[in-house]
């Protein structure tokens, strides 16, 4: 039996400890509902460790985000005074820190789904915890459906569904032999302060509010919720300039998923380090919705809630993935405010009216499975061995049209054969957690002997790099300096990465050229992980640098081999028409295309005032004819 320190007994979850353990003895499925910061994610796996663990068994605790899985594993390891990867470890995309002694594994939902391919009953785990179930991610819903079947075959498997807010009735109806446990609320009171009118420029309003807090209160960290990386980096840049000018005791930190482990660790130590300083500082953490519930930051006294987040919505008829800035739900607003009441009383400034909260915000966000493309999910489902997608028992069945669109795409990419079974290419795609078009480009790049270049481009695209990230580059100057390539954005992205590396990965060069240094660091590590994964899967990587005019042409051909379904032809001076579905589209203003080309390929379509192509590169008309004639 393993004994460990229980040094967080003040957390609300401890009041429910005995009840949780009692119910698990008689129930297979347990639903735990508790506010953000109640201690569910860190303490429930520890409760189980000493009660239910068998000599060769493990506890799995899934998280919707890699950052959450890593930070939780490190936090719990510190609490039990063990090194991360010994008793408690994590497994996320491209990174794994476990040992033969590991009993608790924090892992992303995608990683657990891939475990099912080799162990369909997940026999190594005695208990599986689905954390943050209220987010209703695509993979959460898929796992719930799979566990519903596994429980029928594994009599003693325990499944715990944990959530800050949850549609309890829906889950009760979905599972049999289950019970819910409500954990007490937050530790301290949070005062809610609403805007008198809707704020049009919430970034400017947030900055003014931060300086007002600094003038009016003595200490306390501030958590600011923004919509995405671009907003966060813009905010940090503006604040850095203002702080140099006004010399305020404020420190600014960004927080989003594509940040290094070292930087994440620094963030989690902010509160401790601040308490040691002689001078009082306000730490301002500008975060995406990752800080709503996935991770916990100590010392937060003030929350500024802009009321928006970015969500991806797929339109199966237009075949468009749109990343939209969308109002948050009431549930998200509740979680955001709860971040301020963890260690002491706090305040939450909502940059929207109380009337907006009461009558305009939805109670819950629509489940991801009803609004996203399904091609990656189908690849995993096929690998696991689930063939009947139509009759699979989803808690909320996805739209049939979305399923058909995903099957069509995978068939055209060569991932599925005419019988709907995975091909060799499909098997590789199911193992590499990036877009299937990107995997196809990597596989095909060996024909053109430019695998290193394609992996660099794909690593940039997979890190959410956008041409808006380099919007400060003037096209004319950028072309002359060698940053912008005349044939399109994919090659410009490659130039950016190569130039940064040639400058010894300089932070000064990145800042001078308007690049996100932390993102480039992430890309550099991701690139190495992609290469290692390709070697493990037996994907041949061949690269030969060619200092001639065919070098960039071959790179374009390799990219095109994965993105041949995402092409458009020039219709007028500014208007293009897509080849596959005949949509009228424009080149997005953020693109660094030097001139208008007859035929182009694009990375994605984006809808705002019109339908725009993002990350655009020239293709030869003959390439398009060859592919479409072949198909």
Automatic annotation (TrEMBL):
GO biological process, one term: mRNA processing
EC number: 3.6.4.13
Catalytic activity entry: ATP + H2O = ADP + phosphate + H(+)
The UniProt record lists the keyword ATP-binding: yes
Residue stretches making up the Helicase ATP-binding domain: 21-184
Alphabetic keyword roster: ATP-binding, Helicase, Hydrolase, mRNA processing, mRNA splicing, Nucleomorph, Nucleotide-binding
GO MF annotations, alphabetized: ATP binding; hydrolase activity; RNA binding; RNA helicase activity
Matching SUPFAM superfamilies: P-loop containing nucleoside triphosphate hydrolases
Principal EC category: hydrolase
Signal peptide: none
InterPro entries for the chain: DEAD-box_helicase_OB_fold, DEAD/DEAH_box_helicase_dom, HA2_WH, Helicase-assoc_dom, Helicase_ATP-bd, Helicase_C-like, P-loop_NTPase
Positions of the Helicase C-terminal domain: 189-385
Highest taxon, organism lineage: Eukaryota
Protein name from the UniProt record: RNA helicase
Species, as recorded: Bigelowiella natans (Pedinomonas minutissima)
């Amino acid at each position: 039996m393993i004994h460990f320190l229980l040094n967080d007994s003040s957390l609300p979850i401890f009041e429910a400890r005995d009840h949780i353990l009692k119910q698990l003895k008689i129930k297979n499925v347990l639903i735990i509902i508790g506010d953000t910061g109640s201690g569910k994610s860190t303490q429930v796996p520890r409760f189980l460790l000493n009660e239910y663990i068998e000599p060769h068994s493990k506890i799995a605790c899934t998280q919707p985000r890699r950052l959450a899985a890593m930070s939780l594993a490190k936090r719990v390891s510190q609490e039990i005074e063990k090194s991360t990867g010994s008793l408690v470890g994590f497994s996320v995309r491209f990174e794994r820190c476990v040992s033969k002694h590991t009993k608790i594994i924090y892992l992303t939902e995608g990683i657990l789904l891939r475990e099912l391919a080799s162990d369909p009953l997940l026999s190594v785990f005695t208990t599986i915890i689905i954390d943050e179930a209220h987010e209703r991610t695509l993979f959460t819903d898929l796992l719930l459906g799979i566990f519903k079947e596994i429980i029928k075959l594994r009599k003693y498997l325990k499944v715990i569904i944990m959530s800050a807010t949850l549609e309890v009735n829906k889950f009760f109806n979905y599972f049999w032999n289950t019970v819910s446990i409500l954990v007490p609320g937050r530790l301290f009171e949070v005062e809610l302060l609403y805007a008198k009118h809707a704020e049009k420029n919430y970034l400017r309003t947030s900055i003014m509010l931060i300086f007002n807090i600094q003038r009016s209160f003595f200490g306390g960290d501030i958590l600011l919720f923004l919509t995405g990386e671009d907003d966060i980096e813009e905010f940090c840049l503006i604040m850095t300039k203002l702080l140099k000018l006004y010399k305020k005791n404020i420190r600014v930190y960004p927080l989003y998923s594509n940040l290094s482990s070292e930087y994440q660790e620094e963030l989690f130590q902010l509160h401790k380090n601040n308490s040691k300083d002689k001078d009082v500082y306000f730490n301002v953490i500008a975060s995406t919705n990752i800080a709503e519930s996935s991770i916990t930051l100590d010392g937060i006294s003030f929350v500024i809630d802009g009321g928006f987040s970015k969500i991806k919505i797929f339109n199966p008829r237009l075949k468009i993935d749109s990343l939209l800035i969308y109002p948050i739900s009431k549930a998200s607003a509740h979680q955001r405010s709860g971040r301020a009441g963890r260690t002491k009383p706090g305040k939450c400034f909502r940059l929207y009216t109380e009337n907006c909260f009461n009558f305009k915000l939805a109670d819950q966000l629509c489940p991801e499975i009803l609004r996203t493309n399904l091609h990656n999910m189908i690849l995993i489902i096929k690998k696991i061995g689930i063939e009947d997608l139509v009759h699979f028992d989803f808690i909320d069945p996805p739209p049939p049209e979305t399923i058909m669109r995903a099957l069509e795409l995978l068939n055209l990419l060569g991932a599925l054969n005419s019988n709907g079974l995975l091909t060799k290419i499909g098997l590789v795609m199911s193992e590499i957690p990036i877009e299937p078009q990107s995997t196809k480009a990597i596989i095909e790049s060996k024909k053109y002997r430019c695998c290193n270049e394609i992996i660099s481009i794909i690593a940039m695209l997979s890190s959410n790099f956008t041409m808006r990230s380099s919007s400060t580059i003037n096209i004319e100057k950028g072309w002359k300096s060698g940053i912008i390539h005349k044939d399109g954005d994919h090659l410009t992205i490659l130039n950016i990465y190569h130039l940064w590396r040639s400058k010894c990965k300089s932070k000064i060069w990145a800042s001078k050229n308007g690049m996100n240094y932390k993102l480039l660091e992430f890309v550099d590590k991701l690139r190495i992980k992609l290469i290692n994964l390709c070697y493990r899967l037996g994907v041949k990587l061949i690269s030969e640098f060619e200092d001639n005019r065919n070098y960039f042409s071959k790179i374009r051909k390799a990219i095109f081999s994965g993105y041949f379904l995402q092409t458009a032809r020039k219709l007028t001076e500014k208007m293009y028409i897509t080849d596959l579905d005949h949509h009228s589209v424009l080149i997005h203003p953020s693109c660094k295309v030097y001139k208008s080309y007859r035929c182009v390929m694009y990375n994605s379509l984006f809808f705002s005032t019109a339908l725009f192509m993002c990350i655009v590169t020239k293709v030869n008309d003959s390439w398009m004819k060859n592919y479409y004639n072949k198909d």
